[in-house]
Amino acid sequence: MPESITGRPGETIELTDVTKRYPGQAEPAVEAVSMVIPAGEVVVLVGPSGCGKTTTMKMINRLIEPTSGTITIGGTDVLTLDPDQHRRDIGYVIQQIGLFPHKRIEDNIGLLPKRLGWSRSRVRARVAELLELVGLPADYARRYPRELSGGQQQRVGVARALAADPPVMLMDEPFGATDPITRDHLQNEFLRLQREVRKTIVFVTHDFDEALKMGDRIAVLRPRSVIAQYDTPEAILAAPADDYVASFIGAGGQLKKLALLRLRDVELAPAPRVGGLPRIVVDATVRDALDLMLGEGSDVVLVTGDFGDDAEVLGSLHLQTVMGAAAGKAGNP
Ligand SMILES: Nc1ncnc2c1ncn2[C@@H]1O[C@H](COP(=O)(O)OP(=O)(O)OP(=O)(O)O)[C@@H](O)[C@H]1O
């Protein structure tokens, strides 16, 4: 991986007593929010429509100015910075992608680096490495946005946000407009990408399942962005702070817990010496394994290192272990 892509790691964002009152509104849209968003993590803000998620996020890049309170990034108070320069230093991805229709993909991605005065050859190299990073063919650089599918355009949106290698990225329902299959695909790709770039990411959604999947931590917000619970997905599922948080988890909390647990993090039993057992790859989740057990009517599955019938068998997983995992006993942290 070229150094420039992973060059600038994420920085810690800290909000202290941040309040936003829109002019003419009786109630603040955001009231006295304090939270630390650790460097290199994905923090998801989740809550009902109108609770203040977007307002909270846009105060971080000063698209919206806080009424009071302090926001620091890497220890620097963002209110002391030049707003335009500050905004350019933060990646921003929104649902309505916002690509320029009359500019080629390379010019859409290269816009900010060009404005920052990068040489043409450096911009071209950056565009090429970003296209590769988000999984698009190199020759798409010459295409126009209308020549790409919605999901491909969304990938260009992510590439553009990463163009100047920002330490912080803000993502407002970035995959909201895509169909469920494309969405799942984009989420998986984004998680893979984030493992490489390790930016600090603030991600807004109203879909709790998306929050569980994407977040290293989740902030469940009440109206005015009051934090109901701020913790890891596992901790929130295991012990929701109150009925409000529990209502987001909804039905199937145990299954959601199993969907967070990868087979590689579970202690496997030795493989039994019988033929014909269902096989599942170690990258899958315990929930996938349970699904397979139910589908095949088998209380044991073989776990393999890779796809295919020749793949190495790493061990086996039994239904009893799955039940233990739901109760929080089988994890191998
Ligand atoms: N420019 C504005 N002027 C006045 N009120 C506003 C303005 N922008 C947002 N609000 C109000 O502030 C509150 C929070 O809005 P915000 O967009 O932050 O919520 P949200 O949680 O992101 O909602 P959604 O999920 O529907 O996008 C809402 O009650 C909204 O009506």
UniProtKB/TrEMBL annotation:
Domain of life of the source: Bacteria
Keywords per UniProt: ATP-binding, Nucleotide-binding, Transport
Domain ABC transporter stretches: 13-249
SMART domains for the chain: AAA
Main EC class the enzyme belongs to: translocase
Methyltransferase as UniProt keyword: no
PROSITE patterns associated with the record: ABC_TRANSPORTER_1, ABC_TRANSPORTER_2
A molecular function (GO) term: ABC-type quaternary ammonium compound transporting activity
Annotated InterPro entries: AAA+_ATPase (IPR003593), ABC_transporter-like_ATP-bd (IPR003439), ABC_transporter-like_CS (IPR017871), P-loop_NTPase (IPR027417)
Membership in a protein family: Belongs to the ABC transporter superfamily.
Designated name of the protein: ABC-type quaternary amine transporter
Native source organism of the sequence: Actinophytocola algeriensis
